[in-house]
Amino acid sequence: MNHAEIAKRLLEAERTKQAIEPLTTTFPEITVDDAYRIQIEQIDYRVTEGARIVGKKIGLTSDVMQRMFNVTTPDYGHLLDDMMCVEGEPINTTNFLSPKLECEIAFVLKEDLQGPGVTEDDVVKATDYVVPAFEVIDSRIRDWKIRFEDTVSDNGSSARAILGGKPTSLTGLDLHHIGMVFTKNGEIIDTAAGAAVMGNPLRAVAWLANALGEYGIALKKGEVILSGALTGAVPVQTGEIYTAEFAHIGSVTVQFSEGDH
Q1: Confidence at residue 258, expressed as pLDDT on a 0 to 100 scale
Q2: How far apart are CA 51 and CA 83, in angstroms?
Q3: Nearest-angstrom CA–CA distance, 110 and 11
Q4: CA atoms 20, 147, 118, 62: torsion sign
Q5: Whole-model pTM over 0.85
Q6: What is the CATH number of domain 3-257?
Q7: pLDDT of 22
Q8: Average pLDDT by consecutive 10-residue portion of the chain (261 residues)?
Q9: Residue ranges of the Fumarylacetoacetase-like C-terminal domain (predicted)?
């Protein structure tokens, strides 16, 4: 299996906004290891083109999503500098194929974290602060007909990230119980608590550090870590305003348009 060639197919699908057939259909022999190697090929290519790695994202952290994909583990992807959006600037929906929105808690690190053996306490010590975040996910696979290996190959189906709120120390903050209200144009879509993310978002970040350690990759000082969705992904609608308001750490808001953003 030519990982570099498959990576180019996904990059071309993103560039042209022309989705491709599921890799699990085209390459039924694909393994999870193949999928991560395809992802890394894409990231390496983007970096050679001038992009910069600024963080990581964790996906499939909830029991519901794991059952949907028939897996018992999350997945991850990379965040690049051109994927990060400024809160308050509308996001152009024509930049995507079929975007969806997820509410997350983002960690910003003040120390490197590298597995194996990273614990939740290690994550607390290495975290500078947390903020509320949105992740825009998008699939370069046609009609979201994805299996686990498809989304892993496709950089965890990640597309954009928006950070909001106020930088908040983890000192005295109970992420397990932290509440969140998700609204569209002021109407409640969903509510959740931090426990929806593997019981505690700290556990998700520790898992990520240990999983990446298997490939010799560290979570770096200054990186943004999206710790996983608290609710199901919501299809994005042009012209709508979405807000995720968290207890203690503030809110994040995003509007989608067809403007030049």
Answers
A1: 83
A2: 10
A3: 31
A4: positive
A5: yes
A6: 3.90.850.10
A7: 97
A8: 97 96 97 96 97 96 76 91 94 95 97 97 98 97 94 96 96 96 97 95 96 91 97 92 97 87 44
A9: 83-255
d(C-alpha 133, C-alpha 135), whole Å:
7
Q: Are 54 and 69 in contact (CB under 8 A)?
A: no
Residue in 202, 189, 170, 168 with CA at minimum distance from that of residue 231? 189
Tokens at residue 174, please? 């109970």
Copy the structure tokens of residue 171: 């000192």
Sheet with 179-184: strands ordered across: 91-92, 250-257, 241-246, 179-184, 187-193
User: What residue has token string 């929806």?
Assistant: 196
The 8-class DSSP code of residue 10 comes to H
Are 17 and 97 contacting, i.e. CB atoms less than 8 angstroms apart? yes
How many other CB atoms are found less than 10 A from the CB of residue 67? Answer: 11
Contact (CB, 8 A) for 138 and 95: no
Instruction: Report the distance separating Cα 119 and Cα 210, nearest Å.
Output: 9
Extract the tokens encoding 16.
């042209």
Yes or no: say if 55 and 163 are a contact pair by the CB < 8 Å rule: no
CA 155 to chain centre: 9
- Residue 105: exposure state from Cβ atoms within 10 A (0-12, 13-18, ≥19): buried
